Amino acid sequence: MNNRVVVTGIGMISPLGNDRQTFWDNLVAGKSGVDHVTLFDTADYTVKIAAEVKGFDPTDYMEKKEARRMDRFTQFAVAAAKSGLKDANLDMERVQRDRVGVSVGSGIGGLNTLEKQHQVLLEKGPKRVSPFFVPMMIANMAAGQISIHTGAQGPNNASVTACATGTHNIGEAFKVIQRGQADVMIAGGTEATISPMAMAGFSSMGALSTKNDDPQKASRPFDLDRTGFVMGEGAGILILENLAHARKRGAKIIAEVVGYGSTADAYHITSPSPDGEGAARSMKMALEDAGFMVSDIDYINAHGTSTELNDKFETMAIKRLFQDHAKKLAISSNKSMIGHLLGAAGGVEAAATALTLQSQLIPPTINYETPDPECDLDYVPNEARSMRVRTALSNSLGFGGHNATLAFKAYIEE
Fold first, then answer.
1. Which helix (H) or strand (E) holds 402?
2. Which parts of the sequence belong to the Ketosynthase family 3 (KS3) domain (predicted)?
3. Which of 163, 190, 293, 326 is most exposed by smallest CB count within 10 Å?
């Protein structure tokens, strides 16, 4: 018999706040975290806006010397992991540390470090490249540093699946606990790519919104006038726990994870498969894993990037799977407020989904002003909605055709 898995803590570093409560309050208030870029000079850039993390000081979470040896994406991850453990009231000195694991990934990894050290190489030569360059850059270092800083000695993994990274890491962590290989997993995603190279690359693809004159209106998922996504950054970490373990220590339970789906489009490096076929299979797999019927689902936290193809094909995927029930679903996109956090998106959005189930309050899709005939479902426009939410899905779709879905349900004390 599979172990039941619950969420007992949330760690958050985001454009809307660097703790669970601030993030959630701003999300349900419909506040935008998008503004003009301050992390580098955008004078030569077509795109000048992003959803930056604000007020983050890594030395609040670690020694200054340690922070200097981490890329920003790893700093975010360690900070969110420590915050998540504190939120879960989980003392690592009082648990079996080899039964606590980590599953945290990054879609791109230490791009800031790569850019800076490449400049050093060009200007000063190979002998001046930092000996910390490689361990600061590699994408698995977030998971590695979390284990070092928390003492978690159990299964340690860093799945990398572009924008589906956070969701895949949580799904794999869920399965580790379900199989009995760990009691607790620190799981999610982290990203810090508001950098010259990343912004230039995504801009060259035509993927980013250029609504520089009104940043807070730039991210507008499912709206007819959407013009591309807005780059975001941060980390979202869930503390997942075997239900029996959580009960034994008297943990407060936020929500229950009950299903996981993972599929490939096998179609294109950046475009979703036509008609949302791959995403539909991912959702179907998560439903079957959870033992749910399509009619059981109340809410979907959509990938909802604010790009023409994603929003259209994700809508088609939902209609393909849910049929008549699709019109009864509440659907919203957190990216309307926090931008697209790439590899961290699934972690942050899974946290928001868990909090939706706990609070019975659905965050809105802001900037929804002009309906798109091809996106004709209920996207909870502009204002949060209080309603009964028993079950929910959280979707992530990544470049390369990676699809991942998590199924949650509200936890009821037994």
1. strand 402-409
2. 2-410
3. 293
**Structural domains of the chain, with CATH:** 5-248 (3.40.47.10), 259-409 (3.40.47.10)
Contact criterion met (CB below 8 Å) for 155 and 103: yes
**What does the chain come to in residues?**
414
Q: How far apart are the first and last CA of the chain?
A: 19
> What whole-number distance in Å separates Cα of residue 162 and Cα of residue 107?
4
Q: Compute the chain's Rg from CA coordinates.
A: 20
Tell me the sheet residues that pair with 264: 402
As a whole number of angstroms, the distance between CA 275 and CA 315 comes to: 9
Please name the amino acid found at residue 389.
V
Tell me the one-letter amino acid at 52. E
Q: How far apart are CA 113 and CA 240, in angstroms?
A: 31
DSSP string, 367-389: T--SBBTTB-S---BSS-EE---
Helix/strand/coil for 333: coil
- The whole-number average pLDDT for the span 225-254 is 98
Whole-angstrom distance, CA of residue 266 vs CA of residue 272: 9
12's tokens: 């958050």
- What residues act catalytically? 163
Per-residue pLDDT, 301: 98
What gap in Å lies between CA 115 and CA 4, rounded to an integer? 43
- What pTM did the predictor assign? 0.98
- Whether pLDDT at 346 is above 80: yes
Which string of b and e fits 118-138 if b means at least 16 CB within 10 Å? eeeeeeeeeeeeeeebebbbb
Q: What are the residues facing 263 on neighbouring strands?
A: 403
Name the phi and psi angles at 50, rounded to 5. -165, 170
- The tokens for 253 are 């339970």
d(CA 12, CA 203): 27
Helix ranges (H only) for 249-306 are 277-290
